[in-house]
Amino acid sequence: MTLAIAKSCGPGRPKDLEKRAAILEAAKRLFPQSGFEGTSMDVIAAEAGVSKLTVYSHFTDKETLFFAAIRARCEEQMPATLFDVDLKGPVRHQLEAIARAFFSLVMAPESISLHRVLTSGTGTSPKLVQMFWDAGPKRVQGHFQQFLHNEVEAGQLEIADIPRASAQFFALLKGEFHARLLCGCSEPISEHDIERHVRATVEFFLRAYAPCPGRVSPVRL
């Protein structure tokens, strides 16, 4: 028993995990600041306090690290468990929780900086933009579409085109707040205004996709 534990927790493994986490943290900070081309593996290694060889041992190239950093950022703020359907609670509450997490993610300074870098056309490529899309927005859309599908199956929502409804939900959430922030002309947004925006968006979404009155399936509103 003792031997088995020693093998599973052998020397070097916790340190390896710590180094990987440090590399990811450095990448999450540096890519939004300097863009993909402006961020070297040497700088990431120095920021993480490891050798460049260690960076490459965990992530085979810079593109792989970029993808992992974007994915990690999204998973931190919008974990897969956020989209688990709770049939005992109101669908409204779950939609609001998803909306708050998404709004917080896209309005974060790091997200805004990275968005500007990727849309500036400087030092970016279609492949890099696609990698960002796959690691971030596509993943979130996929989880949310599955959530909507499960709610439709349970009779709590009535949606004919789930991908379109999903895109509408996130577009509504970004709204003018996100557009103004991208332009650099947004004043600080209060928690009260954020909450009003989230609830109004969810209310709008439910008015569009809640089952019609008279249907057998109850609506958890």
From TrEMBL:
Keyword list, A-Z: DNA-binding
DNA-binding region: 40-59
Annotated TM spans: none
Superkingdom of source: Bacteria
Pfam families documented for this protein: TetR_C_7, TetR_N
Domain (HTH tetR-type) ranges: 17-77
Name this polypeptide is given: TetR/AcrR family transcriptional regulator
